[in-house]
Amino acid sequence: MPLLAILLLAAGTYAFRIAGPALGHRLTLSDRVRHLLAVAAAVLLVALVATGALTQGHGFAGWARPSGVLVAGLLALRRAPFPLVVVAGAATTAVLRLCGVA
Amino acid sequence: MRSLLRTVDRVTLRDIALVCLADALVGASFGAIGVSGGLPVWVPITMSLLVFAGGSQFAAVGLVLSGGGAVAAVATGLVLNARLLPFGFTVADVLEGPWWRRLLGAQLLTDETAAFALLQPDRRRRRAAYWLCGVALFAVWNASVVLGAFAGGLIGETGALGLDAAFPAVLLALVLPSLTDRRTRAAALAGAVVAVAATPYLPGGLPVLLALLGLVFAGRGAAAGPDPVPDAEPAPDPESVPDPEPHPGNGKPVGRTSRGSGPSAPITEEVH
């Protein structure tokens, strides 16, 4: 993660933040744009979950990692506390690897 | 600060504290997982100070650690943070005042601060809730990332500990609450299938951006009119119903209708 990348992400994010307070009276966003932006965020996050859980480089990540993510997802669905969700996910993957599952 | 504390009611103060606690845990995981995954300590710390948007931080670092390019990481983070744009318009009245206050206050804009501000009944309390939540979150988030980053340096074997599963696990916990809407789910599922299917063939990071194709299933949104204009339009919209309220978004969480629950379920909220 080069510094330039962090600066670009920070600058762009700040631009999104300041646009409303700076232009508030001169511009409004349509409901359709608001809706699309919200859905876009969800779409990207789910895609990150899917690729992060299932793939490594250009191939399959093995069964241990998606199994851990699945356990975490089930716990999150049941509104388990955040630390438990993350630790249980990692622990599932770790135990499976200990048992020889890649 | 003291007058801000007096302006906001006890329940809101408690909820802000809970959100801070929850985000502290997320921040500590961000620092720890990033550094134990191989990033230098300064990367998560600098990111947290300058970007201050947890979801995009996790996404960008996750992409880089899994072999994606920096360009894709920046692009993904920016698309994720584009949702701050409507929040900015919704809380614009909260940040009115001297230019320096506007510039500083904008950096504190997150999902959480916008949500807390919009829950308040009047402008004075919206402003107090926004600044309280924003300053507290900024302090807590950055402190916890620093702690996590140094703790992460002590962790040795990330693979054996299953820490590679922690990144997708965190993101999943963050995104689940926003999947209550059927169309959002359809779009997300389609996007995920596209991204996974494209992974063997495209350079790292691009498949995730390609997932945005899933937006064709996004629909028009519950509140969209019969002929919505896709671009931003000038404020005095002649067709809009006259609004007796002097400020936009008064007490109504306009930009949050398709997102998850309110701040009563802090951890399930999209972080920052």
Question: Structural class from helices and strands of chain A?
Answer: mainly alpha
Our measurement of the CA-to-CA distance between the termini of chain A, rounded to an integer number of angstroms, reads 27 Å
* Largest protein-protein interface: A-B, 82 and 120 residues
Oligomer: heterodimer
Provide an overview of this structure.
The complex is a heterodimer of chains A (102) and B (272). Chain A is mainly α and 102 residues long. Chain A has 4 helices and 2 strands, in the order H-H-E-E-H-H. Chain A has a two-stranded antiparallel ribbon with strand order 1-2. Chain B is mostly helical. Chain B has 2 domains: 2-162, no CATH class; 181-225, no CATH class. Helix content of chain B is 56%, strand content 0%. The longest helix of chain B is centred in the middle third of the chain and has 30 residues, at 123-152. The chains are: A mainly alpha (102), B mainly alpha (272). Chains A and B meet through helix 1, helix 2, strand 1, helix 3 and helix 4 of A and helix 2, helix 3, helix 4, helix 5 and helix 6 of B.
SSE topology sketch:
The complex is a heterodimer of chains A (102) and B (272).
Chain A lengths: L2 H21 L7 H24 E2 L2 E2 L3 H14 L4 H17 L4
Antiparallel strand pairs in A: 1-2
Chain B lengths: L1 H6 L2 H27 L5 H9 L3 H12 L4 H12 L2 H7 L8 H9 L3 H9 L3 H30 L13 H10 L6 H17 L7 H5 L62
Helix pairs in contact in B: 2-4, 2-9, 3-9, 4-5, 4-10, 8-9
